[in-house]
Structures are given as C-alpha cells and as structure tokens.
What does this fold into?
Amino acid sequence: MRKFLDKLAHSSIRGDKLIGIVLGPTVLLIVIHLPLDMTPDQQNLLGLVAMTLVFWVLRVFPIALTPVITLGLAVILNVASDREAFSAFSSPTLFLLIGSFILTHAMTRHGLGRRISLMVLSLPTVASSTYRIVIAFGALAALMSTVLDNGAVAAILLPIAISLSRTFSDDIEAQSGVSDDTHPLAFTVALMLMTAYGSTVGALLTPLGDASNLVGWAHMRRYNDIDVTIGLWVAVAAPIVIVLFGALCAIVLALNRPEVGSIRGARATVAAHRAKLGRMTRAEKNTAVVFVMAVVLWLLPSLAGLIYGSGSAAHTLVTERLPPSVVAILAAAALFLLPVGWQKGFTLKWDDARNTNWEPILLVGATLALGSLMGSTGLAQEVGGRLAAYAENFSAIGVYAFAAALATAFSELTTNLVSVTVLVPIIPAVAEAAGGDSLQATWTATFAAIYGFMLPISTSANAIVYGSGQIPFWKMVKTGLFVDVSGVILVAVGVHIMLRVLGIAG
It folds into this structure.
C-alpha cells in the first residue's frame, strides 16, 4: 500500500479519478440490486444516473463524454433502444446552441466584445470610483451573458479585468498604504468575482444565456400548456435578475471592500485601451449587424404576440417560421457570407467554426437525452413521488424553496446543466403533490440551478476566472456561500411573485 501511494503521489494519475473508477460501478451495482419498488427499467436507469453523478463529481471521464457513456450503458441494460437513447441529438436546442457559439466566436475573434466592454468603462462616472468599476464590470458581464455563453463572456472580460487590476494596483497600494505580495488586493478579488458572478446572473435574463436554461426551457415548452416564449421568459426574469444583481453587488463589495474609493488616472488608462483598438473593422461591423439582427428576430415572436395578440395569424406565422434555432443557424450562416475584403475574404471561415468549443453541444444533447429517458421510463415521476412524501408537510412555497435549495446545492458539486437535467423532470411532480404549480417549480429549479457560486467547478465562468490565479479559494467559497443563500431566497420568492403578476400561475 505504501509503494502504491508513493507511485500515485509522483504520477499524473489523480487519486479522485481512481476512486471514481471503482466507486461509480459499485454504486451502479448497489442501486440496481436494492429491493426498491420500481420496474427494472427505472431501477437500472436510477443506478446509471447515480453512477453518472459519481463520475461527474470525481471527474472520471471528460464531463461531456460522461452522459454519452451513460446512454450507451442504458442501451446495454435494456433501458431503451439506441434510437430512443440518442434521439435528443436531433433536438432544435442543439442547433440553437451551435449557432449561438459561432456568433460568440465571431465576437471574440474580431474584438467586438472587448470594444463594448471598454465603451462601458468609458462612461463619465464609472472609472472615477473603484466601487463603480466593479459594479460596471459586473453589469457589463450580466448584459453580455443574456445572449452569449457566460463562459465566453468571462473569457472576453477576464483579460481586461486583469489588465485594469495590474494597472491600478500600484496606485491603490500607494494611496492605501497596503502592500502584500502574497495576497491579491481586495479590489482585484472583487473585480474578478464580479466578472464571473455577473456573467452567471445575467444569463438568467434569456433562455439563450446558458445551456441549462435551454434544457429547462425545452422542458417547460414540452410539458406545459403555456407557450413559454423568449419574451415571456424575459418578462419573468428581468425584475428577478435586477434584484439578484443588486444583492450580488452588495455581498461582493461588503466581503471584499476595495482598499480605496477612487483611483487616480483610471479614466486615462481606459482611454488608452480604447485608443489602441482604433476604428471598428469591417469584420466587427459585420458581426455587430448580425448580432443585432439575431436579437431582433429572437424577440420577434413575442413582439408579434404583443402587437397582434397571442395566437393571431401573424404571431403563429412568425413563431412557426422563425423559431430560435433557425434564427441562430441563419445568423451563423450570414457570418460566412458577409465579406471583409478581397484579400481577407469573409467574416468567418470554416476553420473558425471548426475551432468552436463543441464540448457543450455533446453535453447538452446527452443530458437532454438522459432527461428524456427519465421521463419515458417513469423514473422522474417515481422519484418525484418519493420526494413528495418527504415534502408532504411543506406548503407550496416551501416546495419552491426546497427546489431552489436543491438545485443550487446540486450545481455546486456538478454543473448547472447537470442539476437541471436531474431535477427538472422530478421537481414538478413534487410541487403538484404539495398542491403547487408544476411550471413554477420548473422555472424555480431552472433559475436556481445556475446559482452555484461557491466553487470553481460550479460554473464555467467561475472556472475561467478562478484559473487566473487572482482569487484565493476560500474567498470564492465565503463570498459564494452568501450569494448562494441570497439566491435561493430571491429566486423562490421572485418566480412566485412574477408568475402571479403576469397571471400565469394561480
């Protein structure tokens, strides 16, 4: 044993992965042989889900590959046929994600995202205050993540945040008298945390802001009588996001108070960054035009419903002919057609699309398929009924708070996408058993699933920003804990109020 541990300590093989390799199959075997009152399909799938969670937490396989392996094992264990297991890979949600990622890549490659961020920091009153810089950066991250992947937003803003921190650190130390090379400045920590946290909170504003939103949104549209359009989602989410962002700013700045209130020369530094960018290039202009048109077309069905009435001929035509997935693909296609110049060719080339991060596509498709199997086998309803037995004494609002807390806790250990996949098929049944509304429970769990802020693995934005080395681990844990608790309360109450204000839930 001593020799084994010594070899492990000096090898590139992680100990937690070795534990997961043994623990995952062990959990599967235990679950499928437990004396549970379930059908064989349900019990086999439950064992596979449990094993998948073990693999995710202990990172046995790449996160996107894990649910694909689970689907393969589901076929082997006769839970479903291969056609049923992999049917979700034809979902329009995946094509919406592909188009959005190509658009995101164009914004990053041509510098449009960086230009937008520096424009915000150039507003008259922003650069004169450390607090306003932190808040503005968070607000910018939140706005950008409404239609772009929050990890991409964090990646766009992180270099600027690091540059600003390094540029201002000497002035802050000179003004405050604080000088500690072993710990980052509180201003730096606050700026980094707001870059990550703002990216995540803003993603709630539209279903396009995060892959987990798309999974929850797809479930709402499939299993509820109400047509949950992008406009309706925004109407529900906007007040909640504003309140959540206010709480986020208060918590981050209270726990990581900047050493000084203002920084001399900050506006000049921002102006210098903008000067280096120069005028907008043709590629930036093309990307901006496509981006604006995509946003307009995404909102067009909701606008048609408001102007002509829901269910009108105009509303039906636009909804059927321009679904979000089609708009995303057309926007991506436009980037390959708009020219930059005779020498430079077009705004994007296929090499750009090839270099897009395809891992989330695989992950979303597999997790959608896994969630579909949980519904088709009846496992979601079975687990929901058992959870309902524990929550039978809860009020309806208690179930919603339970859903928010459970989704947030899941997201800390895995990812928000995993949390939504596991909980969204289950939580509605729990809510209905307690006399609540299934749509409200689904919405609450979907919103809360993105609200995991304590750990670097909780969100892609957290991982990207933590990877900069500018945030001490326990600073993220401490701040994230307070943000999580506030989020559970505000999401549960906010969704409850907004659905009643809009007349969606009784």
Q: What stands out?
A: The radius of gyration is 24 Å. The longest strand covers residues 339-341. Residues 444 and 491 are 6 Å apart (CA to CA).
